[in-house]
Amino acid sequence: MEALALERKEEQKRELKERIAQLKKERNAIILAHYYQRDEIQEVADFRGDSFLLAQKAASTDADVIVFCGVHFMGESAKILAPNKTVLIPDERAGCPMADMVNVEGLRALKKQHPNAKVVAYINTSADVKSETDICCTSANAIKVIESVDSDEIIWVPDKNLGDYVSKFTDKKVIIWEGYCNTHDMLTVKDVEEMKAQYPNAQFVVHPECRPEVVKLGDFVGSTTAIIKYCKESEHQEFIVGTEDGTGFQLRMDSPDKTFHFATKYLVCPNMKVNNLKKVVRCLETMQPQIYVPQQVADQARASLERMLQVK
Ligand code: 13P
Ligand code: SF4
């Protein structure tokens, strides 16, 4: 009975994938999927990537329609960078709690207190907030972006953990907002120590959205892409992974012979997981939900995103 149910599920998946391929052709659409998406979504993606790579892809695609499988701010960034394209997201409820921890009023008040500071915004922010900033960054380029800014004083929003990490690599004064990622911030020193005791030969690779005391334990610290690259190229065979569990899809694909242990069962972003194949089909059929960003906000936010894309 169980085997039959499994077979039926696989068949349904195959049908959904075929329907997606057909709809993609009809709509001239591409599917962009963040590394934290469910495996089934990553399997149908034209491009998988971290927030930086996906922003680059959105800015350069020839497709008419972008299906953004990630969270809301990522879809917004795609729309801002490709204003003439239709940007669909499979489920509007896919938000990012960290992005919601900073708003325009709060940021304006902080800017007033530090009139000489330039604002560097993690891409995990709303379009409204981006429109109030000087330059965006992702975890893949944060240090380079800070160094590129023409000011010795930086307001950093919204991730306090990434802010703490990057501030160690610059002499600039970094004024850090108090936001955090509910998922990465869950990981504790105790979790990591227990895993290290269980897997003494494993290297601990960690995302800087984790708490500073956890990041300190890392054999390697980097963005999602940097972690994937490091594990692929490393001579080590076993890793404890301190980032969201969807990353396992690319890690296992790149290094099928290596072993990856996820540091806890809590390293799952529930917002990233609301997307599924059925919703991808539905959004391509109905062309809804679409991302809209008011033009003035988009123009200001685009300047900030494009400055980031130009940082070498
Ligand atoms: P990156 O994609 O930049 O690694 O960011 C991690 C993240 O939490 C995205 O929401
Ligand atoms: Fe936001 Fe964290 Fe989820 Fe990324 S992993 S979308 S930062 S809550």
Compute the CA-based radius of gyration.
20 Å
**Largest sheet properties:** 4 strands, parallel
Distance between the termini: 56 Å
CATH class of the largest domain: Alpha Beta
Estimated helix fraction: 40-55%
**CATH level-3 fold name of the largest domain:** Rossmann fold
Mean pLDDT: 96
Q: What would you say the CATH architecture of the largest domain is?
A: 3-Layer(aba) Sandwich
Query: Can you tell me the CATH superfamily of the largest domain?
Result: NadA-like
Overall SS class: alpha/beta
Please count the beta strands (DSSP E, at least 2 residues each).
12
**H/E element sequence:** HEHEHEHEHEHEHEHEHEHEHEHEHH
The proportion of strand residues reads 15-25%
Shape: globular
Low-confidence stretches: none
Catalytic activity: iminosuccinate + dihydroxyacetone phosphate = quinolinate + phosphate + 2 H2O + H(+)
Protein name: Quinolinate synthase
Organism: Paenibacillus piri
Binding site for [4Fe-4S] cluster: 96, 181, 269
Descriptive key words:
single chain, 312 residues, alpha/beta, Rossmann fold, 3 domains, four-stranded parallel beta sheet, 14 helices, 12 strands, globular, binds 1,3-dihydroxyacetonephosphate, binds iron/sulfur cluster, iron-sulfur, Quinolinate synthase
